[in-house]
Design goal:
six-stranded mixed β-sheet; globular; alpha+beta
């Protein structure tokens, strides 16, 4: 049986551990590695895009990181309860044309009993910034 520790129900300490693990995985920009934190049939809403299952997650992330260069993400704890965690995040990236953006928003996560994320709902806003305004 596939498990991803820490397992729910989450404490403040284990919720923050799960958040740091997610941040580290996303900053690796390795779609296959990231996908292993999710259930086989995980459901996502990422902005207005709906993604279902690990195969679609890998494809989605590979495309994302081909467009979003010099990607750097920071996640912060917002709240947790039992098998759910809410985070605030921001990330910065550069387009192929050289323009810089900061994306920020909130994510709501729901985990199964094995610590795999079964639902991820992300609300994200993008703001064009000057390179001198970067702080990640």
């Amino acid at each position: 049986m596939e498990q991803k520790h820490p397992l729910p129900p989450f404490t403040l300490e284990t919720a923050k551990q799960k958040i740091q693990m997610a941040e580290d995985a996303w900053n690796s920009q390795n779609p296959e590695k990231v996908s292993l934190a999710y259930t086989i049939n995980s459901e996502w809403r990422n902005r207005s895009t709906f993604v279902n299952g690990r195969e679609e997650i890998v494809k989605f992330l590979a495309n994302k990181w081909q467009r979003e260069l010099n990607y750097k993400l920071k996640k912060e704890y917002w709240a947790h309860a039992e098998n759910r965690i809410a985070v605030r995040f921001e990330y910065e990236y550069q387009t192929k044309e050289g323009n810089w953006f900061r994306a920020y928003g909130n994510e709501n996560w729901e985990f199964d009993e094995n610590g795999l994320m079964q639902k991820r709902y992300a609300s994200i806003n993008d703001l064009e910034i000057n390179e001198s305004e970067r702080h990640l």
